[in-house]
Amino acid sequence: MKDALELIERNMEEQLGIEEIAKAAYSSPFHFQRMFHMLTGITVAEYIRKRKLTLAAQELAISSTKVLDVALKYGYDSPESFSKAFRKAHGITPSAAREPGVRLKAFPRISFHLSLKGDKEMDYTIIDRASFTVIGKSIQVSTKDGENLRRIPKFWQECFEDGTSVKLSSIGINENLLGICLDMEHDKEQFSYIIAVEGKAGIEADEFTTRHIPAATWAVFTSVGALPGAIQKVWGKVFQEWFPATGYEHAGGPELEVYPAGDTTAEDYQCEVWVPIVKK
């Protein structure tokens, strides 16, 4: 990760491909982007964008370089697109960055430091499972500025309030509700999230979406505690501790959360995280 960050920082004026960045971390592009997001809370694209706008603001403040030249230097095709991004990041126009006493925002370079973790063992199970079909309701979710961490719990609340969860439970092969992340597009900073059940053969569900989950090898982790806090902690530990400690990496397929019936606010509520894996 440190080598990948150094590569990014040395090439702020270039258009680095994610393949080259991931290679510096000895990782597949998908696994690197997933790891980066889980470790830092932002996507690779968002990090690079914020760093470039930080450097652009510094350059405008201390030099007489034309706004157009600064925009082109940091990868923007036009002054308009640069100005829009600059205003969103700093709250002012690029030209205003030159005014005496103006306040600018700086997004610092991320650094990783080794620390001792893993004070508690992480129990997990490796399961090979054939493909299966799920039926549910889906939304498109953005990872920008942690929007997914807010939108997904709200989506669950909506599905409980409008009766969607009850309808799904009635057509599934069991009462388990599934939360599934799929169609991950890291370059666009978005993915699909579906609240679903494993489908029964021959069920007609026109109001819902039907999706195919491919065969995979899964690492399965148990979450114990009230939602969403407990399961979010498990996700963090999977990427911060489990992946670095094992010879596995993310396979790039859908990720599952399995929610049995029960009181999700209880301190002893148990659910599961399923992560598709491959051996490095």
TrEMBL record:
InterPro entries: AraC_E-bd, Cass2, Homeodomain-like_sf, HTH_AraC, HTH_AraC-typ_CS, MarA-like, Reg_factor_effector_dom_sf, Tscrpt_reg_AraC-type_HTH
GO molecular function annotations of the record: DNA-binding transcription factor activity; sequence-specific DNA binding
Cited Pfam families: Cass2, HTH_18
Domain HTH araC/xylS-type: 2-100
Signal sequence, renumbered to the chain: none
Coiled-coil ranges (or none): none
Keywords tagged on the record: DNA-binding, Transcription, Transcription regulation
Record-given protein name: Helix-turn-helix domain-containing protein
UniProt source species: Paenibacillus foliorum
